[in-house]
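Revision sheet: structure tokens.
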Amino acid sequence: MQPRFLITDFFTWFNKGDAAILIGLLKLLNSVFPRSEITVLSLTPDIDNLHFLKYCLCVKSRFFNNYSYRSKSRIKKIKIIPIYLIKAILILLSIKFKKIKLGKDQFILEEYKHNDVIISVGGGFLGGKKYGSILYTLFLLYYSKIIGKIVIIYAQSIEPFKSGIVAWFTMFVLNKIDLIFVREQYSYNLLKQYQIKSKIFLTADTAFLLNELPKDHNMNLIENKVFSEKPLIGITVRYWRFLESKNHKLLFKNYLITMAKLINYWIAKRNATIILFPQVIGEKYDDDRQTSLTLYNLLSKKCKENTMILTEDFTPEELKSLSGKMDLFIGTRMHSNIFALSMRVPVVAIAYEMKTYGIMRMINLEKYVIDIKNISAEKLISLSELVYEKREEIGKILDTEIPRLENISFQSMLIVKRYLTKKLYYR
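Predicted:
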């Protein structure tokens, strides 16, 4: 009998990086625990069920599903917090008083009770000043332990704490988790620094396990629109709020102007073709296609003629395969960089959180990272030229490092298997 898994904290299909993380995790689970029952809790279950049907899993709503509020005003977001806090209290009371039910949300709690193992999916939603993580993630992991479940955090990053409250709640819950797997050294060192009692392991981001499409797949979107002799440069941009600065609007404007100068340089010097990739779509405030369009409108007429914005709802596999056609990738979205790196394409990574440095360090390419807060056209152009000139050397590094990371992922899941064998006595 195989254990039953509940994967929590999944975001949405519309975020292709998160979708790739989930697909990679499913690949690991199906490899090590064949024919196991797997359920996923997401923010957009109706959409996700359509896309993940081929993986033979069921997608249901997360308990505190705030997706419809993400594009609302700050006041409206705050108004839902008391409601969620009342629900959290009722959840705790329902453990002792069985007659307490939570209406239509009760079926979600039943998923926690029905499954043997709760896995918090990979991502970067812990640490920093991420107050939402206390309620949306940590509370439900704590609840899972109270009702006697095995709880695993798998392939996550924990940002350096910038709030004492976030740090306290995070450490309190992490000390009760069965197994913690972090996807880069920074997070590992941070947890060791805080002397977390749980078992901690260093693994790799599961998005590295994403399959590319077969070479005969109809992926001629780019080939039909550009000349093969031109260098192809893939770029991802994102809306970033620079919340730690009072001049956040000015910093974001500088970021976009810098990216425009970068594009102008590569088109003027090498007659390059620029492809703007959509890594996250579907959200009013954080749709990469909108940010790409804003950037596009900053370009000169000649640059616009040599720049293409991809706008379709691509699968993660399609985005990975398309990124593999690039000669150079300059990515703000970390998982767009992972897609390119997995295809042996050299990358300049623009870091908005520590996870970017950590993951690039995992493949010995940390020196090709630039901080979004200190970005300048001069620095970015210089670094992109360096990476382009070293693309063959970097390709050889990736030929060694990518298979190594894939193996680390499988070895990590074998650790999970040994632990569950001991705890659940399954066969």
